[in-house]
Amino acid sequence: MEKESIDQVTELESEKTRGKTRASRKSALDFRKYTKQIWLAGLGAFSRAEEEGNKLFDSLVKVGEELESKTIDAADTTVNKVAEKAKESVTDTKDKVERIIDQSIHHSLNRIGLVTAKDLQHIEQLLLQLHTKIDMLIEENENLKSKLSEK
């Protein structure tokens, strides 16, 4: 009896071992299956991230180029406006300074009795008018002489 119970115990242990081995094989297969699924999911995620990352990168580059273009245009416009205003301001200031200097010089020359360029221009106009009148008088005088000599 003892042998029989030992055999039964051995057989029971053997069945348990076979059951454990089957369960062990099944859990090992499940583990491999899940491990492979995790690996494939990781590859899929990497692939999608790479595709989406490239699309996102390209999109960001395009937006950056548009922004840079707008910024450059705005900067150029602003610089041109500022340059125009500066030119106008410089021109206005230069004209004012020239007028002040001209008035000051004219006043100083008149005070000490010297002739200015405007005075010379006026005298030149008067001389031209006088010359024209003299020419007319000479012509009229010659016409009168010729009429007198005919008589």
UniProtKB/TrEMBL annotation:
It holds the Pfam family Phasin. Residues 1-27 are annotated as: Disordered. NCBIfam families: phas_rel_Lepto. This is Poly(Hydroxyalcanoate) granule associated protein.
